[in-house]
Amino acid sequence: MIERQTKENLKHVMDNEFQEFGIAKNQLLTVAHDNGANMVASVQLLKRLVDSNDDDQGPSVGAIVRKEKAMIDAHVGGCSSDINDDDLGDDDESSWIKDGDELTTDDFDADHELVDHAFQDDTDDNDLIELDLIESTRCAAHTAQLAVWDVLKEYKGRLAMINKVCIKMRHKAFQQLFHMHKYPLPPKINETRWNVWYIVLKYLLDLRESPFLSILANTDASLDLSRQWQFIEKFGAAFEPLFELTLRLQKDHVPLSQFYADWLVCQAKLDGIKEGNILATKLLKSMQKRIKKLSSTKVFKACLLLDPRFNFVGSKRLSPADKKEAQEYLLTLDKRLDEITGIQMRQGNEKENTSLHQSNFVDDYLTDFFEEDSSSSEHVQPPDDSLLIDLITLETREKVNISFRQCEGGLNAEPFDIVEYWNKRKFCNPRLHRLALAVISAPSTQVTVERLFSRTKIVLSDYRMKLSDETLKNLMLLKMNSDLLPKVAKILDDDESFK
Predict the structure, then answer these.
(1) Where in this chain does the record put each HAT C-terminal dimerisation domain (predicted)?
(2) Which of 25, 217, 241, 261 would you call most buried, defined as having the most Cβ atoms within 10 angstroms of its Cβ?
(3) In Å, how far are 169, 264, 268, 292 from 288, measured between CA atoms?
(4) Rg (CA), the chain
(5) Cα–Cα nearest to 318, from 336, 298, 342
(6) What is the distance between the alpha carbons of residues 406 and 421, in angstroms, rounded to a whole number?
């Protein structure tokens, strides 16, 4: 886009794209984006209307499910949410390393308070109606990266010094030496990708175990890293769980509840090594603060409500107020799906009988973190509305392991699959199955968009600079949806109007 990336211009671009592809706003569930304040604000504009009678948007929650909300209120009582809004802000991680030319003190165990910057939405709320089903979803991968910057920026001087050593190792004077001993050169640092730092420091740890390091040190004393090994060891231990989390988030689609499960597994690992590792302590603190913005949306809470790893007998992983909000959202979504599809689905009956609960260190951490008591479950079913009853009945399920199913001798290779879980219930509970697939479809990251940017650089090369905007858009649309082409071709082939 040529215009400035203000919230108004971004909203205008989205409106134009929806109109071009024939997407009505009542079909929107969520918009995934990075943590930029302009993107957050543009989605807020998108979900608000001056005219409450706009037929394209559909009625609000109050108009659709007033009866169901009253029933939920009666069920939940006067519970209030215990979510704390003490959030970190939308930091920009770019070019921070350039400021770190001096070496920081060897005492890197000194704690520093992380700085909070709360985003202020300056949108005028007068006479605006919120479209309750359109949610703003911050990219989990970008949020994880911001959590890392919160810690790395305190050690930019030390990291810059280590990077200078790596740069010198790649110099021509040493390249032949690396080649003779068949040892790879150090990776190059990309300042906007934190995981490269982990890869570089992991490379140095592996190099320390090799006799080749002593050869390098004898060749040039400036390549000595003896003062840095303690920091490098602590760094490798602390950031390995984050590196694993980043790899899991690189999949084309990671449901919100699956991303949250992976995030909590990472927190549990950091909690296990935080004693004696100040880097792990700071990283855990940052992750716990950053996750609050991601977990505050209705679609996120609805996804957790439908996931047996978070909503089970005795669970406190969703507060009563969060469960109420998620139930309201799902009741509204059910009616919206009826409206869009023209099909009113009937509710089936299903009794959950899951025996997958097995204790491990992650679940022990979560049980303590959420202060759970699995011996009791507090809920009373309302007398009518089958969908609401079934939503509340989900609380009676047995707990499913948060990450991997344990077996004797180690971890099984297959993790819990929330899509497979609900597909098995397609016929016995079609109404909940439809709702589950809708909320599971909400993306937790925008990695597919990042891949699109990378592919655009290849398509729009120096030899193809005369491509029009429309041609470029069509090319990228085909590249990103190549798996759908056979289905589209079959539809066109069966359509008589195209013959």
Answers:
(1) 414-480
(2) 261
(3) 38, 9, 11, 7
(4) 26
(5) 298
(6) 18
What is the H or E stretch that residue 407 is in?
strand 404-407
Tokens found for residue 350: 């299903």
pLDDT tier, 174 (very low <50, low <70, confident <90, very high otherwise): confident
Q: Per DSSP, which regions of 35-158 are E strands?
A: 48-49, 129-130, 135-138
Tokens of 228: 């840095």
What is the rounded distance in angstroms from the CA atom of residue 224 to the CA atom of residue 229?
A: 10
| Residue 404 confidence (pLDDT) | 57
pLDDT above 90 as % of the chain: 33
Q: How many CA atoms lie within 13 A of 65 on its CB side?
A: 25
**Token couple for 1:** 């886009």
Provide CB contacts within 8 A for 316, sequence distance 6+: 370, 371, 372, 373
Residue type, 277: N
Residue listed under structure tokens 């300042």: 191
As a whole number of angstroms, the longest Cα–Cα distance in the chain is 81
Question: Alpha helix locations (H) across 101-139?
Answer: none
Pairing relationship of beta strands 135-138 and 30-33 according to DSSP bridges: parallel
Integer CA distances (angstroms), 209 to 195, 213, 413, in order: 22, 8, 30
pLDDT at 138 over 70: yes
Tell me the per-residue pLDDT of 265-276, one tens digit each, with 9 for 90 and over: 999 999 999 999
How is residue 471 written in tokens? 């041609």
